[in-house]
Amino acid sequence: MTGRERTEAAAGRRRPVxxxxxxxxALGCVAVVVIALPDRExxxxxxxxxxxxxxxxTARTDAFARYGDDGARTDxxxxxxxxxxxxxxxGRVLWLFSDTYLGTVHPPPNPVGQPHSWxxxxxxxxxxxxxxxxxxxxxxxxxxxxxxxxxxVGEWRWPVAARVEARSPGSGEQVVRVLLWTRxxxxxPYIYGVPTSTEVATLSLPDLRLEGITQVLDQRQVGxxxxxxxxxxxxxxxxxxxxxxxxGDDGQRPVHRAYVARVPDGRLGDPxxxxxxxxxxxRAGARPAPVLGDGQRRGVGSAFSVVRDAGTYVLFTxxxxxxxxxxxxxxxxxxxxxxxxxxxxxxxxPLPRDAAAGQDTAAYNPQAHPELGGDGRLVLSYDVNWxxxxxxxxxxxxxxxxxxxxxxxxxxxxxxxx
Length: 418
Prior knowledge:
Layout: H1 5-12, H2 19-27, E1 36-38, E2 45-47, E3 50-56, H3 58-69, E4 79-80, E5 84-87, E6 93-97, E7 100-101, E8 125-126, E9 129-133, E10 139-142, E11 155-166, E12 174-184, E13 194-203, E14 210-218, E15 229-237, E16 242-249, E17 258-264, E18 275-277, E19 282-283, E20 305-309, E21 312-318, E22 328-333, E23 361-368, E24 378-386, H4 391-400, E25 408-415
Antiparallel strand pairs: 1-2, 3-25, 4-7, 5-6, 6-9, 7-8, 9-10, 11-12, 12-13, 13-14, 15-16, 16-17, 17-18, 18-19, 20-21, 21-22, 23-24, 24-25
């Protein structure tokens, strides 16, 4: 589970949260009014966008379940979170995961009393992995894991957003740039790591070989870990020759603040090309200022996603202020730097059930996958995990029931509210 969401969810929940509670929370959300505003960047108008309908995408959810349960391979992905994807030039899809289990999954020992596939305690665990899928998104193979090596003892890398871009501006050769979060082992509220830096990795095409890693933003000089900002939870092409890279802080409250940087297309791996929104303008080397989040009811989870739809930027995140993590809400803006309007009415995607222990699970890290959509629909994934205050107990549950630590999917439509 990325960032602090596991800790926040576990600390805030001592009993299961049912879809009914999620529905009540959704009904209490503020509705977005239909409004047209000029783009802050000065060209295109945009209008309010929100989720008009959604349905579970069981085909994609089942595809990862089949792949993870396949006993023909013993060195491949069997579960993970931090789900991101990028379409490669040859039509394949590269799926990137943070904390990952490899090894073998065993069939249900008792279809009545223990109806879940499971993994034993010797299953290999790595900090990141990559799965290659065919054109349809169906998983086919796991790249040798971990793809991105740990930086040292007690320090590791989590992959987040990825883009295919020219090796250098004007080059006809393409590479994959993968944004990485570096985290360092810590105690207290940072049992899942202290935020350390943002890096960019370069993968060759078509063989996906790791060529190198470049640090773009070092946060070790920021003394308070709660004020450190890591970028890459999502990246969006702005249509103006730039890529907008969003990030979040590691504040101690459940509601985080969102930040944004911009980079000319083809220069994600060049730290000198990055500019940060400082609250008034874009500046290289600036201290980023939040574009969304009040620390109370408006804001984002530690991982969120942004897409650009008909000139409007739409942000998906877990609903702020909810008990535990169950509902997804959205915001919209005419510019990456805001102002952001919302939250919109939330929806509660289905969670896997655990017949032996009830439904004490969380949804988190909603990520959009525009390359998989079609017919006006957008594919959104979300990760799931067992809620518990201790990592060891959570790991025991997700090994006993592997469906508790795999991505799930919904298909949705965006439209003007009303």
